[in-house]
Design a protein that fits this description.
The complex is a heterodimer of chains A (about 80) and B (about 450). Chain A is α+β, with helices and mostly antiparallel strands. Chain A contains two helices and five strands. Chain A starts with a strand and ends with a strand. Classes of the chains: A alpha+beta (about 80), B alpha+beta (about 450).
């Protein structure tokens, strides 16, 4: 599981086995995700947990394989 | 067992027509697009292609193929490559005041679809482009075989077309790319100097067993799939957009003028068209295992029919008059303006941003790097040339399929050409007279 650093409110992870590199998350929240072109998958950036939660939620909802997990404080 | 000419049988048929239910079905890992392999292996375009693949192999293919649909590639296509190609072709093809727009739309779309697919062709050769369009027409019948009126005839035609397509367009490109890949592996060429297209990435990665590309057949069919997918929907949507505009009656000329002047409005017209006239009005899935959607039990081997047309007309999401054509409508901010026409979930159309562009925010404010989509540019280009319905000749739908959104011929006239005079001047003059396109990141039409 690709995991970004945890902030006070959220953690952001992407399951690389599920991700198919559509790039939707990068389009919606470029401050939270980038594409790793060598593997063809998206990965969360270190600062992802501090990105606007609404954008993170939109990215997670828009992911075609539901590979993104956005966790709140206390879960993970 | 044969059902309507297809080697397919189902334990039950279950229909969904609500937006949320269809979306849930499209995300359900137990529902696949693999219906009955025997139906596709007999020469059909779909055997072993990404469109009907399922699970890990599907994701592996999409990972390498999605690299051809990155935002920077889309911007390069629509800001630099496509306007030049499109206008040169339109100048060449609109050689009189009355023309059939559907084949012109196909020729416009096939140029870049062929480039993205990675086949060997001459983009300046109308003969090459027309041959490719003929192939696309056959492949489109193959991709819609579940709705074909004579599936056996379609299979036979697709099989013959495949052989010709492979011989004339794929093999020459394959040889060139294989040689270039060898040079990259030998350190003579940098990897970023390879062509950027589907065939190249398939050949580059084909030793990855997860891709299931060891045989040549799936490689050829995959390339054909991207050629067909990149051509057919765009051409049909261009014609459907004009058909909806013309159906507004006396107001149509004002709408055409607005399209000509405003790229973002042209894109809204395209996305509204996609909502009302989806290329696949009823998507189909097969239950690989028992599952449950919206509280309904779906037995294994069920045929699940997803009525996208109904879902796309849900008044809770698309407003009080969802049947109407209104590019300015307010849409629920959580749904795209095209509804479910590009699907959702793992099989969401990889080329949706090529044809339809990026989603349009509810505010209609778009960023400088917004992608408008090629169909909006095509629509705007014909609008700027003064497109009008041809009152003397009727459009002709494609009756070989039950899909109501498909056309064979769409006669139009170009008002400014009626006055005669040199073609170049007549077509170019209105462009200079138009106001600046009132959106940031607007595209120039050289």
């Amino acid at each position: 599981m690709e995991r970004a650093g945890r902030g006070s409110a959220t953690s952001v992870t992407i399951d690389p086995d599920l991700c198919m590199g559509s790039g939707e998350c990068v389009r919606v929240a470029p401050a939270a995700f980038r594409l790793d072109e060598t593997r063809g998958v998206s990965v969360p950036l270190p600062g992802a947990p501090s990105v606007d939660p609404a954008l993170l939620a939109e990215a997670a909802l828009g992911c075609p394989t539901r590979a993104i997990r956005v966790g709140g404080a206390g879960d993970g | 067992m044969s059902e309507g000419g297809l080697l397919t049988s189902y334990s039950a048929t279950i229909v969904f027509d609500r937006y949320d239910d269809i979306k849930a079905a499209l995300f359900d890992a137990n529902l696949s697009r693999t219906f009955d392999k025997r139906s596709y292996e007999d020469g059909n375009i779909r055997s072993g292609i990404v469109s009907i693949a399922h699970g890990a192999m599907h994701r592996a293919r999409r990972r390498i193929e999605n690299t051809q649909f990155r935002a920077d590639v889309l911007r390069l296509y629509e800001r630099e490559l496509f306007p030049r190609v499109m206008n040169a072709l339109l100048d060449n093809l609109i050689d009189r005041d009355r023309v059939d727009l559907f084949p012109i739309g196909e020729l416009l779309s096939v140029v870049l679809a062929a480039r993205r697919a990675g086949i060997e062709y001459d983009p300046s050769s109308l003969e090459d482009l027309r041959t490719l369009v003929r192939h696309v027409d056959v492949f489109s019948q193959g991709s819609a075989i579940l709705d074909a009126k004579d599936p056996d005839a379609v299979r036979k035609l697709v099989r013959a077309t495949y052989a010709e397509f492979e011989r004339d367009f794929v093999r020459p490109a394959w040889s060139k790319r294989a040689a270039l890949i060898e040079r990259v592996r030998g350190g003579e060429l940098a990897a970023d100097e390879l062509p950027h297209d589907i065939l190249t990435v398939l050949l580059l990665h084909r030793e990855d067993l997860a891709l299931e590309l060891a045989d040549d057949g799936p490689v050829v069919r995959e390339v054909a799939t991207y050629l067909q997918g990149g051509t057919h929907t765009s051409a049909q949507t261009l014609v459907n957009a004009l058909d909806l505009i013309f159906a507004t009656g006396p107001n149509h000329a004002a709408i055409v003028d607005r399209v000509a002047a405003d790229t973002l409005f042209a894109q809204r017209v395209v996305q509204e068209t996609l909502r009302l006239r989806p290329t696949t009005p009823k998507m189909k899935r097969r239950a690989e295992a028992r599952t449950e959607i919206a509280g309904r039990s779906i037995p294994k081997d069920s045929l699940v029919v997803l009525d996208v047309v109904r879902a796309n007309r849900d008044p809770r999401l698309f407003g009080a008059d969802p049947e109407g054509f209104d590019p300015d409508r307010t849409v629920d901010p959580n749904v795209p303006r095209w509804g479910l026409s590009f699907g959702a979930g793992p099989h969401q159309c990889p080329g949706r941003s090529v044809g339809g562009g990026f989603p349009i925010p509810a505010s209609f404010e778009v960023a400088d790097d917004h992608v408008f989509g090629l169909v909006a540019l095509e629509l705007q280009a014909v609008a700027r040339r003064g497109v009008r319905p041809d009152g003397d000749r009727q459009p002709e739908r494609d009756l070989r399929t039950d899909r109501f959104t498909r056309w064979l011929h769409y006669p139009v006239r170009f008002e400014r050409l009626v006055r005669g005079g040199p073609l170049q001047e007549d077509l170019r003059r209105p462009l200079r007279e138009l106001p600046e396109v009132p959106v940031r990141g607007a595209l120039d039409d050289p």
